[in-house]
Design brief:
The protein has 10 helices and 12 strands. By secondary structure, it is of the alpha/beta class.
Length: 307
């Protein structure tokens, strides 16, 4: 928890909430200045009513400490939310399936305008602000592969129209089976667990994250080949996005990618190989905000939400 620093009389306070499978982070900004930030873990026995009550408790404590209302609230949500505001899928907390998220949030924040979006989309929004780039593709490589697209400073396809599911674009028709049921999704090839599984096949024994990182830094062929396969898949997805909507910058983040120094360079090299005549390769770099991207994006969404 950070020390509270009230924004001053008349300052509009915006709340960002990053809802995860195991914990929730909250951040309040007045203007663009942070005035409070806190994190709590979900209780051991999940359930939508119990979880919402716990969230309400922490939001109430934050309101009491600050002594001001929230102008707007933005939420980063890993669940799939239908057009009617109901959660249709959340693999890590399936008890939420069917929950009317919109109604629950209106009850929790009666004084504020509320909006929500996919955590990968909001990660892209925050990274675009940090990079001062209005046309940006963000890919987060971790337990899965997520990300988002910002065009003209706005999320694409936009809140209420579904999330930018780059992890479920098909990059290898005969590739491994994805958790979604299809074969060859980017997530099934380039996620952290998928990369570790491929590295283990090449090495002939189990591979941990630390072992892969060390092997990569030492130039071990099995580690280099595993990460090159991951980079090829990421580049294939990114070049397809580039051909369709022409972002100016690709940023790569997520817990797995952040721990593999130079992964963005591998992707950049593969994009250069895939570039066609007259089409410059997409510029690539590491994401700047690390694990804070979705939370910062939730605050950014709150600032964009009008009462």
């Amino acid at each position: 928890m950070t020390e509270d620093r009230p924004g001053g009389p008349g300052a509009a306070h915006h709340l960002g909430v990053d809802i995860g499978g195991t914990k929730v982070a909250l951040r309040v900004e007045a203007g663009t200045r942070r005035v409070a930030e806190t994190v709590f873990a979900w209780q051991p026995r999940p359930g939508s009513d119990r979880d919402l009550a716990q969230l309400a408790e922490h939001v109430g404590e934050l309101r009491d400490r600050l002594g001001v209302p929230f102008r707007a609230v933005g939420l980063a949500v890993p669940a799939t939310v239908g057009p009617d505001g109901r959660i249709t899928a959340w693999p890590s907390r399936p008890e939420w399936t069917g929950t009317d998220l919109g109604a629950a949030l209106r009850t929790l924040f009666p004084e504020a305008a509320v909006a929500w979006a996919d955590d990968g989309d909001l990660g892209a929004l925050a990274e675009a602000e940090a990079a001062d780039c209005a046309d940006l593709l963000y890919v987060g490589v971790g337990t899965g592969v997520g990300g988002g697209l910002v065009l003209g400073g706005e999320l694409c396809p936009g809140t209420g129209r579904g999330s930018f599911e780059i992890g479920h674009t098909v990059v290898e028709l005969d590739g491994p089976r994805c958790v979604c049921g299809r074969h060859g999704c980017l997530q099934a090839i380039a996620s952290g667990p998928a990369t570790l599984r491929h590295a283990a096949r090449l090495r002939g024994s189990d591979v941990t994250f630390d072992a892969l990182r060390q092997g990569w830094c030492d130039g071990r062929p099995w580690a280099v080949d595993a990460l090159r396969r991951t980079a090829r898949a990421l580049a294939a997805a990114a070049v397809s996005v580039q051909e369709l909507v022409h972002p100016r910058l690709l940023l790569i983040g997520g817990g797995f990618a952040n721990g593999m120094p130079g992964l963005d360079g591998l992707v950049s090299a593969r994009l250069a190989e895939l570039a066609r005549p007259g089409q410059p390769p997409l510029e690539v770099g590491p994401a700047a905000l690390g694990p804070l991207s979705s939370l910062r994006g939730a605050v950014a969404l709150a600032r964009l939400t009008r009462p």
